[in-house]
Amino acid sequence: MTLDVVILAAGQGTRMRSTLPKVLHRLAGKPMVRHVIETARGLDAERTHVVVGHGAEKVREALADCEVRFALQAEQKGTGHAVAQALEGLGDGKVLVLYGDVPLTRRETLATLLEGVDDDHLGLLTVTLEDPTGYGRILRNAAGEAVAIVEHKDASETERAVRECNTGIMAMTAAQLRRWLPRLSADNAQGEYYLTDIIAMAAAEGVKIATVQPANALEVEGVNNRLQMARLERAYQRAQAERLMTEGVALLDPARIDVRGTLTCGHDVEIDVGCVFEGDVELGEGVRIGPHCVIRDSHIGAEAVVEAHSVIEGAVAAGRNRIGPFARLRPGTRLAVGAKVGNFVETKNVEVGEGSKINHLSYVGDARLGRDVNVGAGTITCNYDGANKHRTEIGDDAFIGSNSALVAPVSVGRGATVGAGSTISKDVADNALAVSRGRQISKPDWPRPGKQDD
Ligand code: UD1
Ligand code: CA
User: Fold this and answer.
1) In a domain, 450, yes or no
2) Does residue 449 lie in a domain region?
3) Considering its fold, how many domains does the chain have in total?
4) What is the pLDDT of residue 12?
5) Taking the mean position of all CA atoms in its chain, how far away is CA 294?
6) Do 170 and 262 reside in the same domain of the chain?
7) Which of 283, 256, 170, 160 is nearest to 220 (CA)?
8) Separation of 79 CA from ligand 1 center, angstroms?
């Protein structure tokens, strides 16, 4: 049977106290609803439908690159009404209802739920809570079969004593939904079309309710305010940290790492405290990351060391590199094996050859450095003339003296030397020395001016 996933994301999220629609608030750097969309993709859903309402335009925009269909719920008349908005676009197989503000449900849990669904069975994810206040309660008959859900606001005292709760996540066939949704009524405490009322309809038809529980209650936890958001974020990060440690990564403090994307590590990687990893980051075997580094969409090769407070984005380091402390590697930085980038150095769109060094206080952009080049402290590639970017080429074994400005387009040949403090605007030939600075003058016994009397 095919699978349609319907993600409800029309609610306002008043308690977030934000102009951003709730489902766009970020968990691990990604809008919550994207986590849910990815879960749907993990289940090989034929189609994923997102029901939007509050902030519909913003949600559509934020998901423009996702393969999803949008259904508009112009007015929020309840969860049953919300699912009904997607009804037209459903196939003939199974339907799974998820929520844009419940981001951490595991694929495995949902797969189990879906396995139990057929023409005679509906799947319902339930959770038993210490404090069930506010949740819909699962009502069971004498035989222990689930037969109805009663919302907290509609429940009697006895019903409120039930601690088994509706998570809201359920699965059924599209045919069942087509049969039941049009029969919902809003005759209840909240005047809403409750999706939960289909449970009693199913039971009345002899369709069995197959209940499934998640391995962990966090899987079904929704976000209504920023406190819950932060709690889920910590839980998510804890799980990432545990996964990394299980895979052989040494985390100096598993409570002080944030992974906002995918971090893949070789053996014996060591990560100090306070690091943030974003997008796709790969760390090769034996890489060591110092404290408080931010690394985004980069590959750091084996045995490289990244010292404290380095910020690395869109870079590739081939291995055995030494980076930082306080280095900033910007997109397009390619370090060959053993290349070094030291403190207060910014690089961008640059290839640095094997064993070359840019150790202190430099900006090197739009450039190619050969092997064993030494770039002295304070060297700047002047790559921008106010309108266009130009390239700097530096040959193998070249030596750039400290505080030099290389005015691109320009090239420094192999084995060439640039004297300290030079402004180089013409190409330097292989093995040549180029110096361009005022000659020093010295006046012996020169009397320094004294204060004038007035
Ligand atoms: C719902 C369930 C309740 C369950 C609880 C779990 C119903 C009637 N009740 O209650 O049994 O225990 O979730 O958290 O289903 N939404 C829309 N359009 C609407 C209404 C809601 O998109 O018209 C979305 C909301 O954005 C939210 C989700 O559906 O993501 C749940 O809606 P909410 O109003 O929070 O339902 P609850 O009252 O919490
Ligand atoms: Ca809710």
Assistant:
1) no
2) no
3) 2
4) 86
5) 13
6) no
7) 170
8) 6
Is the pLDDT at 169 greater than 90? The verdict is yes
Ligand 1 contact via 411 beta carbon (within 6 Å): no
454 pLDDT more than 80: no
Burial of residue 118, with CB atoms counted within 10 A of its CB: 0-12 exposed, 13-18 middle, 19 or more buried: middle
CATH number at residue 104: 3.90.550.10
Phi, psi of 161 (to 5 degrees): -75, -15
Cα of 136 from ligand 2 centre, angstroms: 10
- H helical segments located in 130-225: 157-160, 174-180, 198-204
Contact (CB, 8 A) for 117 and 173? yes
Q: Domain residues for 345?
A: 226-434
Predicted confidence at residue 452, as pLDDT, reads: 87
Nearest atom within ligand 1 for CA of residue 167: 6
What pairs with residue 30 in β-bridges?
Answer: 27
Query: Ligand 1, closest atom to CA 100?
Result: 30
User: Whose CA is closest to 376, among 390, 389, 394?
Assistant: 394
First to last CA, the chain: 100
Taking only the tens place, the pLDDT of each residue in 268-280 is: 999 999 999 999 9
Query: Best mutation site among 70, 79, 127 for ligand 1, i.e. most ligand atoms within 8 A of its Cβ?
Result: 79
Q: Are residues 300 and 209 in the same domain?
A: no
332 CB under 6 A from ligand 1?
A: no
Same domain? For 283 and 406 the reply is yes
Count of alpha carbons within 13 angstroms of residue 55, beta-carbon side = 18
Give the domain-ending residue among 159, 188, 220: 220
Q: Which pLDDT band holds residue 39 (cuts at 50, 70, 90)?
A: very high
Residues 131 and 250 in one domain: no
Which amino acid is residue 92, in one-letter code? D
DSSP state for residue 197 in the 8-state scheme? G
How many C-beta atoms surround the C-beta of residue 387 within 10 A?
5
d(CA 416, CA 219): 62
Q: Name the E strands within 44-145.
A: 47-52, 69-72, 94-99, 121-128, 137-140
**179-203 core/surface letters (b: 16 or more CB in 10 A; e: else):** bbbeebeeebeeebbbbbbbbbbbb
Q: Which one from 54, 152, 309, 360 is the annotated catalytic residue?
A: 360
13 lies in a domain?
A: yes
What is the DSSP pairing of strand 121-128 with strand 164-173?
antiparallel
Confidence of residue 350 (pLDDT cuts 50, 70, 90): very high
> Per-residue DSSP letters for 23-41?
GGSEETTEEHHHHHHHHHH
Could you tell me if residue 22 is inside a domain?
yes
